[in-house]
Amino acid sequence: MRYLITQSLLGSWGYLFSCMEEYQDKAYEDFLITLRREKKETTPEMQNGIDFENEVYLAAADAPRKPHPKWEQGITAVATVIKGAQVQVKAQRELTVAGMDFLVYGILDALKAGSIFDVKFLNKSFGSAELAGKYLESPQHHAYFYLIPEAVDFTYLVSDGQDLYTERYTPDMCKPFPDIVAQFIASITSMGLLDVYKEHWQAL
């Protein structure tokens, strides 16, 4: 039996150990929802991110669209970077670790000439955000370098609708992805949640 691994699952798990103490109970609840693959309600903040990305893809493709009244500057800045890239690229790769077989799966926002880009929308202005190293602990770039081993770099393209912040990583800056998966399995085993994972994350 193979089991599915995604960066969003690992991100939800990792947040348990990186969030502030007052958010730990909520982080655990959210992780259980993710682990059980329960449908999450789309919040206004999440919808903003979806809408922003969709506008970026249209702008990058020079597709017909109306200028967005609030986000046009940010949309244009991000679209300029990914222009000419393949977008929403599905990727998967097998992995065996910790005595288990996995299928690692992800959808890349944009891929161009060996460079991976991920579009992020920030629901608060950069003036009120701490940005430096914001995605350092994210499992996303580790996972996507495993999925696309020939990739030379991974850049987060972060916008608040006005400005653009970029955060770039290269493969040599990442820990081996199999090690992250092994830590995940050891962690959920110690939490008594391995069977929950196995029940809901079988790879078809």
Give your account of this protein's structure.
The chain is α/β, with parallel strands linked by helices. It has one domain: Lambda Exonuclease, Chain A, CATH 3.90.320. The chain is 40% helix and 25% strand. The chain is built from seven helices and six strands. The longest helix has 17 residues.
Number-wise, the strands total 6
Query: Overall pLDDT, averaged?
Result: 93
At the third CATH level, what is the topology name?
Lambda Exonuclease, Chain A
Structural class: alpha/beta
CATH class: Alpha Beta
Major pleated sheet: 6 strands, mixed
Overall shape: it is: globular
The residue fraction in helices comes out at: 25-40%
Radius of gyration: 18 Å
| Number of structural units classed as domains | 1
Helix-strand string: EHHHHEEEHEEHH
Q: How many H/I helices? A: 7
Name of the CATH architecture: Alpha-Beta Complex
